[in-house]
Design a protein that fits this description.
Layout: H1 3-21, H2 25-46, H3 48-52, E1 57-67, E2 71-82, E3 85-93, E4 101-107, E5 110-117, E6 121-127, E7 133-136, H4 139-149
Antiparallel strand pairs: 1-2, 2-3, 3-4, 4-5, 5-6, 6-7
Length: about 150
């Protein structure tokens, strides 16, 4: 490699290392885990009627994530069961491009993505291309998301 490119890479790495050292990664991890708990509470509230009528159930199961700077840590997935079908809200990570964190919604007929925006507030990714389109997580967007990932 030419010396100029090598120098460029060296300087870029030094800047990245300096930026990383100035970030409180433990605080970011705590905030992320709290945001996941907040999401699960929000989902529980949005599904209150089906849960009270016992047409749906929510449970949790452990999951391990590894991320640069945050290391290996434990989270829980939220599992929605309706009849014989499950939909899993599965945290993917805190360090994602364009958001503060990401949780995938996985069903038998597809997947959807929730992202944590500043505020903090959760949004559903409706499309990624040609431009990112987000809609706030609410009763309507959750219903549309669940219909999209579940069997008809």
């Amino acid at each position: 490699m030419p010396e100029t490119l090598t120098q460029f890479f060296r300087e870029k790495k030094q800047r990245a290392d300096a930026e990383s050292a100035s970030i409180d990664w433990e605080a970011r991890k705590r905030e992320w885990l709290e945001a996941i708990e907040g999401l699960y509470g929000e989902v529980r509230e949005l599904l209150r009627d089906p849960l009270e009528q016992k047409t749906a159930r929510l449970a949790r199961r452990p999951k391990e994530i590894f991320e640069d700077h945050l290391g290996r840590y434990q989270v829980e997935e939220l599992v929605l069961t309706v009849g014989d079908e499950e939909v899993v809200f599965s945290p993917r990570g805190r360090n994602v491009v364009g958001a503060i964190g990401r949780v995938d919604v996985e069903g038998e007929s597809g997947e959807a993505m929730l992202v944590l925006q500043p505020g903090p507030r959760w949004a559903v990714v409706r499309s990624k291309y040609p431009a990112l389109k987000l809609v706030p997580l609410n009763e309507v967007s959750l219903e549309e998301t669940l219909r999209g990932v579940m069997r008809a």
